[in-house]
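Before we proceed, please read the two lines closing this message. Let me know whether the structure tokens fit the sequence:

…
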Amino acid sequence: MRQKWLLFCIGVVDVIGSGGFQPLCATTPVQRPAGTNGEQVKTLVRRWIEQGFNRRDLRVVDELFFPEVIVNGQRVSRPAVKQSMSRFITAFPDLHVTITDVVAEGDKVAIWYSVQGTQTGEFEGIPASGKQARWYGADLFRIEKGKIAECRFVDDALGLLRQLGATLTPPRGQ
């Protein structure tokens, strides 16, 4: 069951991230790269979530990420990763991420998580609302030499924005 979930999750991530379906792993067992331990890579990702988001210690990015990392197909720096994390932590000071599932295969780790927090600061142009929000996501990481080299993030951003009171207006003529 876990392998089917992982393949589905990875396929969804790739569909959303690249516009087409190209699974990132085969349905046959993947050879684990030399020096990669499934529990070690799971612990690395858990540490990023726990220390970075739940304890608000952005220094963990310097320890766990390559200086430049691929995020959703774009090369970004560690400071950019920290800035993205800060947007959430600042807007939702009580933000808490709960990882509900972690699966590792080869050099990849997938997590399924929920996030909750109260918006007391501006977020994505939405003024502080005081509203509590809860959203979900699935992230895929590629680990190389004990560090996060690539990430694909998929979450319910639309659901989050709706909970904060945002509305969507289609472009004129549609």
